[in-house]
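seq as requested:
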Amino acid sequence: MRPIYDIIIIGCGLGGLAAAIAIRKAGHRVTVYERAPNLAEASIGAGIQLPANCTRILKKWDLLPIVESISVRPTCLVLRSYKSGKALFRQKARKDSATLHLLTHRADFLKVLAQKALDLGVTIHFGSTVSDIDFNKSSVKFSEEEEIQCDVVFGADGQKSRCRKMFFSRPDHPTTSGDLACRIVLPVATMQNNEKPTVMSRPAANTVNSSPRRNFRSLVILPSYSSRT
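struct tokens:
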């Protein structure tokens, strides 16, 4: 008989919830701890892309229909010149489910994952801030002075991870890529007749457009010349 382990996951973001679902489906007991007071506070974000390697997993988890209902399915990808707007490259999206590519909103996607985790029996605690982790005995201590024992601690607490800092016994700051990402938001009505994701290309910058839920969002990526970004 396969052993069943008690797993603690720190962080209720996309990575933490996806891990919780996968581990719970493997038969283990899973508890997720999140610093934010509720899921809404943990759902900060904007439009994201779900490429085929993601949607194939969602299909295995029986989540694809509901995720499709809150997503936009692009009909094609267009690469345009930043100077003239002329289409340099155009590729139609394939219609088979094996290569399904979706555009959705992070907060909506997070709600779907959270509900699936709960349905599987995962326990989620909000308002829980980690104060210490003992990696020798696999225990997590929270600022409320409560200490929880488990078999495995899974750190999924994002860019400013306290788990990484405790594991390495030193700060683990993000490393800049040299790029700066900016977002603009336009009314959906402005873009209703244009459902095609467009990439505007030049040597120093790219923009990626998507149309998730209430507003239209454009992500602009360009070099950052500031040491503070």
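The two ends are 51 Å apart (CA to CA).
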